[in-house]
Each structure stands twice: as C-alpha cells, then as structure tokens.
Amino acid sequence: MKLALLSSPTSSNGIDAIKQILAVQKKKVCKLAYIASGPEPDRRYFSQTQTLYEELGAQMPLFVELESEFDDDILPELFGCDVIHLAGGDTFRFLKGLKRRGLLPKLRQYVEAGGALVGVSAGAMIMTPSIESAFLCGDSNDVELKDLSALELVPFHFMPHLPSELSTPVDFIAELQRKDVEFDEALFESLYLCQDNSALVLIDGELEELGSPLLWTSCVEC
C-alpha cells in the first residue's frame, strides 16, 4: 500500500509526505485526481491543491464531486490516475457520498492494485477503520450517517489538527473531558493525534511518522 495521512498539505512535513508518495509511483509526471468532500462551486480548494502538486512536478487534471456533479463515466479516468487525493472538509458528508456512489470497495481495489492515496484531514480519517475520530476534532454528523465504517486501509484511527499546546495523549484526553466531548473509548486502542505539521506515510507495510504525531494505544499508560 502507498498511503499518506495528513493534517495539512501545506506544512513542511505534509509536503514531504506527498513527495514520498509521488516518488514511490516512479512516474516522470504523476497524474492525480481530486475527490472533493462536498460541493465546491468555485473549486477554490481544488485550484489551490492543483497548484501545490504542480509545484512538486505532478499534474492534477481531474476533479470529482460526489453529489450533483457526479458522473459514473469519470470512474475509468479516476482509477487510471497514479494518485488520488482525498480532500479535507466535512468528514461525515464525504463518507456518505463515497458510500452512496459505491466507491469504498473500488478505492480499496485501486490501492491493492498499486494506486496511491493522499488523505488530508477528513480524507485521512476516511482511510481508517471508521470516522468516529471526527467527533474529537469538532465535526458533527449533520447528514445523519448511520454507518461510520470507512476504508480500513490502516489498523489505527487518525485525528488531525491537534492543538500545539497539547503535547501528550493524556493532555488531549483531559481537554476532551474538560469540554464534555463524548467519544467512543474503543478509539483509544490505537489512535494517532496529529498536529498540522505532522503526517504519516505507509509504503509497502512500513509506517513512517513525520513531525511529532502522538500515538495513543490501550497500553499508553502501561
């Protein structure tokens, strides 16, 4: 598998993670697709992401929206790309759109066949077993999605945008309790907490931590 899970694609470690994914595909110019988490009428975030990849020597010609603009005819081109970028945004709406279009099994097949994924924030959480961790960073399930199971490409959960002042998992739990945030305790069996300048890269079974992501496991206090 070739995966990058980012909090921010513009941070130094976020960019380094993207560079690793582009390099491992061994193409002179990588072709990418962008899957939006929701409607982007002005495509502002898409344009910003296009520019970022162009500066890294790649091309991102394909924009995919899962709601009113979705067209099944685009799928062969989507899965013919070297890398698919899963954008940030509304995690629950994003997952609901992917499920509605039947794209979760297709994305798994794509990765198993050698395709690479870059997930940013919401996009990174979708690469994990479930998006339960989205509640931890303030997302709300406004679309009333019942089944929060996701791609399960990695065996851990991911929470982006960890505030810099929270330097340990214990600090983070204390902050959740202070704010009366409800959460599924099963998340903490294996949960990465990532500040904006942290990222995770998984290539062929080898997981690399960039920056200072914090791993909470059931044995964190052992």
- Put simply, the count of helices is 7
Q: CATH top level?
A: Alpha Beta
Q: Between the first and last Cα atoms, what is the distance in angstroms? A: 31 Å
What spatial form do the alpha-carbon principal axes imply? globular
Query: What is the second-level CATH architecture?
Result: 3-Layer(aba) Sandwich
- Side-by-side strand order of the widest sheet: 3-2-4-5-1-8-9
Count of DSSP strands: 10
Domain unit count:
1
Give the H and E element order: EHEHEHEHHEHEHEEEE
CATH superfamily: Class I glutamine amidotransferase (GATase) domain
Bin the strand percentage: 15-25%
Poorly predicted regions: none
- Please summarize the sheet with the most strands: 7 strands, mixed
User: Cα-atom Rg, whole angstroms?
Assistant: 17 Å
Roughly what percent helix? 25-40%
Report on the structure:
- The chain is of the alpha/beta class.
- The protein is globular and about 45 Å long.
- 40% of the residues are buried.
- It has one domain: Rossmann fold, CATH 3.40.50.
- The model has no long low-confidence stretch (mean pLDDT 90).
- It starts with a strand and ends in a 5-residue tail after the last strand.
- Helices cover 28% and strands 21% of the residues.
- Keywords: Hydrolase, Protease, Serine protease.
- This is Peptidase S51 dipeptidase E.
- It comes from Shewanella woodyi (strain ATCC 51908 / MS32).
Short description:
The protein is α/β, with parallel strands linked by helices and 222 residues long.
What's the helix and strand layout?
Elements: E1 2-6, H1 12-24, E2 31-35, H2 44-55, E3 59-64, H3 75-78, E4 83-86, H4 91-100, H5 103-112, E5 116-120, H6 122-125, E6 157-159, H7 169-178, E7 190-193, E8 199-203, E9 206-210, E10 214-217
Parallel strand pairs: 1-5, 2-3, 2-4, 4-5, 6-7
Antiparallel strand pairs: 1-8, 7-10, 8-9
